[in-house]
Each structure stands twice: as C-alpha cells, then as structure tokens.
Amino acid sequence: MSHADLSSALTREFLARRPDAAANHIETLSTEAALQLLTPLPAELVTPVWEALLPNVGRNLLLAAEPALARKVLNRMQPPRAVALLSGMEEEEREGLLAQVTDFARRDLLRLLEFPPDSAGALMDPRVLVMRPELSVADALERLRRESRRRRAVRGRRVLYAVDEEHRLLGSVDLQELALAPLDTPLAALLEPIAGVVNALDDKDDIVAALSSHDQSSLPVVDNDGHLIGVVREDQLLRTAREQAVTDLQTLFGASADERALSPVVFTVAKRLPWLQINLLTAFLAAAVVGLFEDTIARFTALAVLLPVVAGQSGNTGAQALAVVIRGLALREIRLLQWPAILRKELFVGLINGLGVSATTCLGVYLWSGSAGLTLVIGLSMVASMLIAGIAGAGVPLLLTLFRLDPAQSSSIVLTTVTDVAGFFSFLGIATLLADLLPAG
Predict the structure, then answer these.
(1) Are residues 277 and 178 part of one domain?
(2) Do 235 and 245 meet the contact criterion of CB atoms below 8 Å apart?
(3) How many CB atoms lie within 10 A of CB 419?
(4) What mean pLDDT comes out for the span 60-66?
(5) Section 140-157 average pLDDT
(6) Are 347 and 388 in contact (CB under 8 A)?
(7) pLDDT value at position 185?
(8) Alpha carbon distance 236, 123 (integer Å)
(9) Same domain as 148, residue 221
(10) What confidence tens digit (pLDDT) does each residue in 406-432 have?
(11) Most confident stretch, 177-191, 206-220, 293-307
(12) pLDDT in tens, 248-290
C-alpha cells in the first residue's frame, strides 16, 4: 500500500469513527482546503461530518461546493440539520440548492422551512455567530474577521454563541468582552449563561414573555432537539409587535387585518360588509328586547328619552373591561386559569362604578322629571347594567380565547350585543315591575 493510499484510508477511518472531531478540524481550514478534502469522499462519510459542522461553516461550504457534492450531502442529511443551513441563505441561493435534490427530499425541506406566521422560527434571523467553547480568543477573532469578509450578516451583531458537539447552546460571549480578553483565553472562560431561550414553534406572545422576563436584547431559537438554529432580535420583535398592535386595532372594530387606507373599493367592501351584516343582526336583537316592552314605553314616554343613557353607560363600562383584559392576554399578564379573580375584580369594579354613576344619574333625572319613581328605576337599572357589562367585558375575550378564537377580532361585536341587551332589558324590565311608581305620559 502506497503512502497516499494509507493516508486516504486513515482519513476515511477517522471520518467514519469521529465525525465530530473531523468537523472541529475542518472548521479550522479555509473553504478551499475543506472542499478539497471532502469532495472525493463518499456521501456516507461526508454527511455526518457536515452535520457536525457549525451552521455558518457548513452553510459557507455548501454554497461553495460543486453541485454534485451539495446534492449528495443534502439528499442524505437529516432534514432539521439541512434546514439550519438552508434557512440562513438568500432565497436565490436556497432555491438553487433545493433544485438539485430529489423531489422527496425537497418536499420535506420545504415543509420544515415554512414556520407558522408570528412564530419564533418565522421571526428569527438564522445567521448567527456560533463557535466552539474550546476555541481561543485569538482564533475566535480570526474566524470573526473571516466571517465578516464573507457575510455581511455578522456586522452589527454584539453577541456570539457557543455550542457543544451536539450543537446545543452552552452560552454567549459579548463581542466587546471578546475583543478585550487575553488572546490565549478559551471562549469557555468568557461564556455567560443564557436565561431566555425560545422554541422555533413558540408564538409571538411566548417571545414577548421571554424578553420581558429576561434582560436580553435577543433570544436564541432552538429546535425540538435543543439545537441552536437562529435568534430573534429585539428590533424585529418590536416591528412585529407594532404591526400586530395596528392590526388588533383594526380587527377590534370589525375591519380586516389586511385592509389598508388605499385598498381597492371592492376589496374593502368585501372585507367590511360581512361584519356590518353581523352588526345589523345584533342591532335587531337589541331592538327585539325593546319591542318586548312596547306597552311600557307607550305608557311612560320618559323611558324612551332615558334609554340611550343606560345603554351608553353599560357600553362604556364593558369597553373599559374589554380593553384591559385583551391587553392582559396579549402581554401574557393574565392566564385563562385566573378567570375567577378577573371576573370577581370586574364585578366589584362594576358595582362600585355603577353606584357612583347611578348617584349622579339619579340626581340629574330627579331634577329633570321630579319623579322619585323614575329616579329609582334608572338608578337600579344603571347599577345592574354596569355590573353585567363589566363582567361581560372581561368574560367575552376570555371565553373566545378558551375556544381558540381571536378576542381582538370578535369581542367588540359580542360585547355590544350583550351590553345593549343588558341595558335595555334591565331598564325596561325594572320600569315594568315598578310601573305603579312612574309618572304617566
């Protein structure tokens, strides 16, 4: 056996038995040298080594590799590891590589590349600075300079992350600390623990909660196996949160989330008209309640004058409770399991506010009408309607959330129906019961 044959055999044996150690060595090589070593090897040897490479190294090698090498690696690579490499590429680069793999592999990879909207996977930046903890500061800085020349994505970043042999997150290093540390210091000595980490499938609310709980400017994103696949940066989350806040404001009043100020007329009508029809049905329901007491209103016309006062106050009370609870749900300040405490609080708030508003209303109605009976009716109905409205304002978004519906989309319409019906029914119902105390006409 010649020296070259022996060297090749030993290389293959090393790659087969220690792909992780081989990956550590390849990470120290230039792209050209690494590809020169890997290209002649069979896929069953190359793929495990490629999977063990740091994502940024594996991604650069994949982009620089000959199509035949890239194809055989991606066809055999575990889909989550392939996704970690592909997701950090430009769209054209990714599509070029996906066009080379088999149809079966392409379908799997495309499915995994599509994270749910507003999930951590969809919001993350997969271009993360990742290094080994045993690397010295001098080697880390050299790799950082090399990465910066190849990828604009590293510029402006303030943190790099260290992972173990399984690509599981170990900690982070601030780039300022890295630049000031002695050159022979290992990264492991500079690592800071990371308190906040999110799964790629966690939604935006989970991300907000994690950022609120931990003093971090960004959150590492891991897959189901704990592998680091990206990072959600605070600026991206703030942009998304601002867009969501505007969307919630629109949907709260029955407008479509995707409607804009200059949207086409046909599109706008198609989005708004269904909700207007639903509002019309709820208005008829409230009118039906008034119709039940037609005789009472005919006998006591003063009731018709005061009816909007009761309905308006109950509507405002419900809207206040609704806004506070929707905010609490959006910011994860409250959970569904806390519904007894939330409703109990709104019950007492509604009762106290109802008594306060009722006292002012009673004074005004008595000065206007001079009727103690009418004053008593509106006073009792004001307390009752505001009590019901407060509980409804808190309960409707909780109930919609329980049934996995968007509380910002439907709460307003449901609440309007409840408060109108409660206000009309309480006022006219009490007036009917106390009709003997009311002035005729």
Answers:
(1) no
(2) no
(3) 29
(4) 87
(5) 67
(6) no
(7) 92
(8) 7
(9) yes
(10) 676 667 778 888 888 888 899 999 999
(11) 177-191
(12) 555 555 555 555 566 678 877 776 777 778 778 878 888 888 8
User: Structural domain tally of the chain?
Assistant: 3
Same domain, 311 and 430: yes
Q: Is 216 part of any domain? A: yes
Is 70 within 8 Å of 97 (Cβ atoms)?
yes
Whether residues 90 and 134 fall in one domain: no
Q: Which of 136, 138, 157, 137 is CA-nearest to residue 56?
A: 157
| Gap between the Cα atoms of 409 and 260, Å rounded | 17
Residues 312, 342 within the same domain:
yes
Range of the domain at 64: 3-114
- Comparing CA positions, the residue from 421, 295, 313, 298 lying closest to residue 360 is 313
Whether 381 shows a pLDDT value over 80: the answer reads yes
Q: Please say if the pLDDT value at position 152 is more than 50.
A: no
- The whole-angstrom separation of Cα 119 and Cα 238 is 14
Counted residue by residue, the chain has a size of 441
Query: Do 52 and 186 share a domain, yes or no?
Result: no
Instruction: Give the SS3 label for residue 441.
Output: coil
| pTM, to two decimals | 0.52
| Residue 87: both structure tokens together | 């997701």
DSSP state of 18: -
Same domain, 200 and 235: yes
270 located within any domain: yes
Looking at residues 145-164, what average pLDDT do you find? 68
Closest by Cα among 92, 161, 150, 70 to 124: 161
Query: Which residues sit opposite 168 in a β-bridge?
Result: 227
**Three-class secondary structure of residue 187 per DSSP:** helix
The answer to whether residue 374 is domain-embedded is yes
320 vs 393: CA distance, rounded Å: 7
